Structure of Deferrochelatase:
Amino acid sequence: MTKKISRRQVLAASGAGAGLLAVGAAGAFAVEARSETAELSSARSDLLDAVPFYGEHQAGITTPAQDRLHFVAFDVITSDRAKLVTMLQDWTSAAVRMTAGLDAGALGAVGGPAQAPPQDTGEALGLPPSQLTLTFGVGASLFRDARGRDRFGLAAKRPAALEDLPHFPGDALRAEISGGDLCVQACAQDPQVAVHAVRNLARIGMGVVSVRYSQLGFGRTSSTSTSQATPRNLMGFKDGTANLKAEETEELDKHLWAAAADGADWMAGGSYLVTRKIRMIVETWDRTSLSEQEAIFGRNKGEGAPLSGKGEFDEPDFGRKGPDGEPLIADEAHIKLAHPTMNGGARLLRRGYNFVDGSDGLGRLDAGLFFMAYQRDPRKQFVPVQRQLARRDILNEYIRHVSSGLFAVPPGVRDAADYWGRGLFA
């Protein structure tokens, strides 16, 4: 059996004195990146639970959903384009290291001069990579500010699909936990590993970005691979039965991955992420009868089968009627309104998480679902689905949408000379 080794052991074995990636011109960045690659290659063969960082698409989208989340949105507080690019290079270097189980910087948490701040915060020392993935995106506000001004010379590169989401009936959005210029989704099997990653990116970005809001999540509410069982949300129902799966390659090309033909070359191989923080009024839900709960979802609570079938993955039969002559699945049931046949064939890849953020001071749990869904074009996928749900879904009595975000998630970082967002800034 392979022996697990700690981050500190990996760092020592791979050369704690290796230099940090240069953060000046792109050429210097690439030269230093080759040294970084050699360090990671020497360490990776001994690491367990590491998800490869480089690839055609960013990890953390079709990657089998991990159990823990730390999502963060940032505001860019500099007007200096060069500083922003430098930070993205630094972030990429740190992300490569942390997803491989290394400290955020080559000198680590304890290997640098005692008189200088450490290059890593240290709370993940001794922990394995825990399948950490870091997924990066950019919001519409990075292209133009609230006054319509081109902030970094990027306005002409804003994809048409990255338009502000419309206001949906019932929205109770809080501006301070919505939007954002940049986002990072950290997913891992260990919450401390995910928090460590976000904390170090925020530390590296100090003076260039500030945290707008962040969200911790637990207990994935979707399966993104056929190897995973369907999990449950905090209402006790299986969630995401019909989710897109990593193995459905043709469906992913159709519904998930952006293409150059969509109008933004730099987004080819990327995707669009919609986030929605959905608070559940759990106290009211918990006083609702089982039969009514099942009617609201259109599925039974135990197996997760549609009320017209017996197995979880049975295709719903919306025309089937019960002994009373009424449809077994109501027209306002969640399963029917969200179904692709009701929304022009639209499908999403969901990666949501449960959350409990304490109480609201009135003895009620502040709990619910942090919804995250990836797609090729939100205008044709999330927006029509959410319009249906917002107008007619009887589940709305028990939920409140309190935050919203939309981010363009670029394609993957191809190699050590590449970095997050390079195609946008080239």
Q: What stands out?
A: The CA atoms of residues 78 and 208 lie 5 Å apart. Residues 7-236+411-425 form one domain. The longest strand covers residues 209-220.
